[in-house]
Amino acid sequence: MSTPWVAIQRNPISGTGNRASLLLDLIHHLKQKGIRPRLFSNRDRMQDILNQQTIEDQPLCVVAAGGDGTVQDVINRYPDQKIAILPLGTENLLARYLGIQKSGQFVAEMISQGTTREIDLCQLDNRKFILMASIGFDAAVAMELARSRKGNISHLSYLKPIWKMLWSFPFEELQIITTDDEGEHETTAYHAIVVNIPAYGLNLNFAPAANDHDGLFDVILLRKKGIWTMIKYVCRVIRGTHLHSADVQKLQTPRIRIQSAQPVPIQTDGDATGFTPADIQIIPAAARFIIPCSMPTNDQ
């Protein structure tokens, strides 16, 4: 019988510097548990190698060593693989939600135990993501940050693009079309947050009741426009009172289409993704993540 192994996809940016020690720690503890690690910086080369493996020679899992963007890339490249996360990014929202510590030893132990959880995926056109999408102001900030990013980012990296968007973002009305068993429903808003997993940057929680395996999005629509209004919305989200506002609407749907007269930026899982129009749908139980044994599975 061949030695069990894992493939580790390292983000070339977030997997450097001090964070490299976490990778070395993971490799060391995997070897101690009799699991052979194979580390890849070139994503295409890793994908080619895994595509050439027979069913018997597939890895125990693919490790996404990076931030939420790395996790998103892995779920698109390896839809049939179990996925583990070594959190090396700035936010690490999914890892935090799943209770995964920023520790190579912890992740090696988690992989050796092999507890898994099936989670719904989201799809925008042909691209899959897992946490959430937003259409509007914060997506414009993510797009501006992507244009200027050099190396690792921190929370301070967002200050300049936020300041720029505060003075230049044009609030464009969004046409929202949702689908359920009763047919299509239409409404409008100036900002839309499509939530699969209740985890958002800076500890903002737009949809605290969102369920990762119910086959539905929680959609939060902000119905008024303007920078001062947006600041008020953020304050309400921080206090947890936004869902009580008359100009905030919550919907649940397995599919949503968003369009606008002029293109509006979109971000998925914190990464700039494109512009409206957008057609987003849920794919039930489409991802399998290795989780700590203390984290509830879908059956609990």
In short, what is this structure?
By secondary structure, the chain is α+β, with helices and mostly antiparallel strands.
Structure description:
- This protein has helices at 20-32, 43-52, 68-77, 93-97, 104-113, 137-148, 159-168, 227-239, and strands at 5-10, 36-40, 62-66, 82-87, 116-124, 127-129, 132-135, 174-180, 183-189, 191-195, 217-222, 248-253, 255-260, 265-268, 271-275, 278-290.
- The chain has 300 residues and is of the alpha+beta class.
- The chain has 2 domains: 5-114, Rossmann fold (3-Layer(aba) Sandwich); 127-284, Sandwich (Tumour Suppressor Smad4), CATH 2.60.200.
- The strands form 2 sheets. Strands 1, 2, 3, 4, 5, 6, 8, 9, 13 and 16 form a 10-stranded mixed beta sheet that branches. The protein has a 6-stranded antiparallel beta sheet with strand order 12-11-10-7-14-15.
- It is globular and about 60 Å long.
